[in-house]
Amino acid sequence: MPIIRCKDQKRQTLEEFYADWASDKNQISADLGKSMLSIIDLINNTFVETKIYGLTSHAHLLFLSQNNSESDWFVAIIANGLQEFHIEYLIPKEKQPWSNATVKGATKSLDEFRDYIIIAMTESQGWKDNDELKRLYLQIKDKNANA
Fold first, then answer.
1. Tens digits of per-residue pLDDT, 49-60?
2. Which of 3, 30, 105, 106 is the most buried (most CB within 10 A)?
């Protein structure tokens, strides 16, 4: 299932929003837009069953499990346009050493970033009972155990 833009930002799809950036005359904005479009494509090809709602906040794309901008975000991603992909996820409340504690990471590999997204969605517990996410997470654990 493709990532869907949150209903509260319904003027454009996520693809349209980042395509506007990708066609910007400013090279930095254009590169960022192209990188974000590649991430959206990656997400759409990875998740067939999982509902992910996207909320844009400046250059960040926030992942929500509910189609409401007032709901908690669980994962935030940003591409810097220099082929480096950044991710942040919210630690579940019962595990937080302080309020709103997060984990951050970055990679230059889009394939590795796919794993980071799956790990972040799992560890944030925003999609707790999602079978597809559980399968994808186990594949990563198996791959790492056999490496």
1. 999 999 998 789
2. 3
CA dihedral 76, 55, 117, 29 (to 10 degrees): -70
Mapping DSSP onto H, E and C, the string for 84-97 reads CEEEEEECCHHHCC
Euclidean distance between CA atoms 147 and 144, whole angstroms: 5
Element (H, E) at 6: none
Nearest to 112 by CA among 140, 92, 134: 140
Which pLDDT tens digit goes with each residue over 66-103? 999 999 999 999 887 778 899 999 999 999 999 999 99
Q: How many CA atoms lie within 13 A of 105 on its CB side?
A: 16
Angle between helices 27-46 and 110-124 (to 10 degrees): 60
Residue 18 burial (CB count, 10 A)? 24
The residues with which 76 forms a beta bridge, in sequence order, are: 62, 88
Return the closest-CA partner of residue 6 out of 85, 87, 73, 77.
73
Beta bridge partners of 61: 56, 77
In this structure, what are the phi and psi dihedrals at residue 103, rounded to the nearest 5 degrees? -120, 135
